[in-house]
């Protein structure tokens, strides 16, 4: 059995709950936990103060969406402050926010200065994956509610630590997996729980793209961004330790094994999260993954992945991921009495032949959902102090799959996970 130190020594950085363990070598000051009263429910008349950490493509998108929600009178909030290690991105986001809201929006190169502000109630974290855990933990300690982009963390040990710290706190933590808001998955959960297809024995899902120029290469390279005034490269490297500057790594970090699990942590998390939630089959207990470099041979992470996952309540899931062919399998759940197929927003139940006389074929046409639905869920949770729809525990369940799948692909081994001891072992 392995303890929960990562198989990759470069990732073994979150051994202690204290933030200083990461930041001390870089000379980065970490926010001292603020003395604050226990959070209370807030009326719709109260304006929530929001901060955004990481204002690249996804972070600036969140910032603009939040401002739009306020202007559309769907929420009462103000973006108070932004943080990014890249000056060009930070300046651009600050300019947009000030133009849209009016008045000053504070900008910080050091995110801990943002966390120290007492007028910020909640933060959006949209940094690269290797910073998700530390920034979320620091935000919780600073008394902030947290919306953290997916994947929740870079690896499983970080996810478990973040979960423990979140459980011990009174803070809301939501993971940015917006497909959990889609009604088709909620309907699927109801059908499975009611026994509509008998025992759900297996499922399939996936997320495939076809990117001839190479996945994530569509993120343009800004030649102005170099270590120094425009970029605090040491801070960007942060928990993984300083490395020689590489503009491709900075702009396209998902292509590199050290900083991302690639397709698994980015694309597949979208589809696995709502299906795992709908199935209700508990924790993954065995994970096997195969990855290949079939077309995009310049990318360090794989351009083709296939996962097989067994769960503690006797269920097997198969997951496809690719950036070399866009044909994606429609989600399906197979039971011993019937099958649920999710095509578009439709939920179709078809009986297995031996049970055709017992049940009818049905199709539920469900409405769709948007990314804003998850943003509004989080803001509602901040106000009402309720459990979010994409909670940290679900994020940990997904990180078991993500981390063990990545280990399996790189090491050529199948991994078992024990949810009771929280240990894993290679077969």
Could you characterize what this model shows?
With 427 residues, the protein is α/β, with parallel strands linked by helices. It has two domains: 9-36 and 43-177 and 375-390, Rossmann fold; 180-214 and 260-370 and 401-426, Dihydrodipicolinate Reductase, domain 2. It is built from twelve helices and 16 strands. The chain has helices at residues 20-23, 57-71, 87-101, 111-115, 129-141, 156-167, 183-194, 233-237, 247-251, 263-279, 371-384, 392-411; strands at 48-53, 77-83, 106-108, 122-125, 145-149, 173-176, 200-208, 284-292, 304-311, 315-322, 332-335, 338-343, 346-351, 362-365, 415-418, 423-426. It has a ten-stranded mixed beta sheet with strand order 14-13-12-11-7-10-9-8-15-16, with helices on one face. Strands 3-2-1-4-5-6 form a six-stranded parallel beta sheet, with helices on both faces. A hairpin with a 2-residue loop joins strand 12 (338-343) and strand 13. Helix 2 packs parallel to helix 3 (87-101), helix 6 runs antiparallel to helix 12 and helix 10 crosses helix 12. The longest helix has 20 residues, at 392-411. The radius of gyration is 22 Å and the shape is globular. It starts with 19 loop residues before the first helix and ends with a strand.
